[in-house]
Model the fold of this input.
Amino acid sequence: MCAQIILIMSEKSPFPLIQTPHFLLRQIVATDLTQIFRGMSDPRVTEYYGISYETLELTQAQLDWFELIYETGTGIWWGICRRDEPQHLIGTCGINEWEQDDHCAEAGFWIFPEYWGKGVMLECLSAMLDYCFTKLSLHRMQSMVEPDNPASWKLIEKLGFQLEGILRECERKDDRYVDLRCYSLLAREWRNRVQPQATIVHFPAST
Ligand SMILES: CC(C)(COP(=O)(O)OP(=O)(O)OC[C@H]1O[C@@H](n2cnc3c(N)ncnc32)[C@H](O)[C@@H]1OP(=O)(O)O)[C@@H](O)C(=O)NCCC(=O)NCCS
Done:
């Protein structure tokens, strides 16, 4: 996967812009609020995601969190856009719980349902992992996924993540406790493997 990593210099700090063959992973800005709300209020997206918002106003907390983790060096979340529509966010991916001393972090991701099953997140996460392991010198990337969410755990397995075990009933959801599948990927495993190639079928019309 050939991804180009460009650093955009700003007065405060450089935010890394990542270019993949079809997408831009760029900083999430105030004008993305509507699209973030659209994603994070869609039950198909949030069913296994853990966070959802009921109003545009409440969704501002998510944008504030993106900014906070970036400013405090505890994470980076990117807005995913098609290269031909760089203003139009179609999803997000990123890392949080970034432990700078231990060189580990946790990955998360979502995109709009009309883009599912087209290889979008495979292409974007490949580029993000490349960036994290090479430029951020991460040693270990972790991801926690619900067993009922095969789209997510098959995606990360395809990227080389290994299942470490099941955290039994570790999360409370509605009125029940749910298991989480705990996955990790180490930098040397990422470097030594043949990277999967995403095949983008076609894009839906803009929404
Ligand atoms: C998980 C999610 C990001 C996957 O994105 P995507 O762009 O559709 O995934 P891709 O098309 O790149 O698929 C890559 C691989 O993942 C696996 N995969 C993706 N969707 C799948 C599905 N519905 N069922 C089974 N496997 C699936 C496949 O192995 C696929 O490779 P293949 O098509 O060659 O078999 C998307 O479904 C989503 O946004 N879900 C809601 C949010 C969410 O659950 N986030 C994670 C919370 S932990």
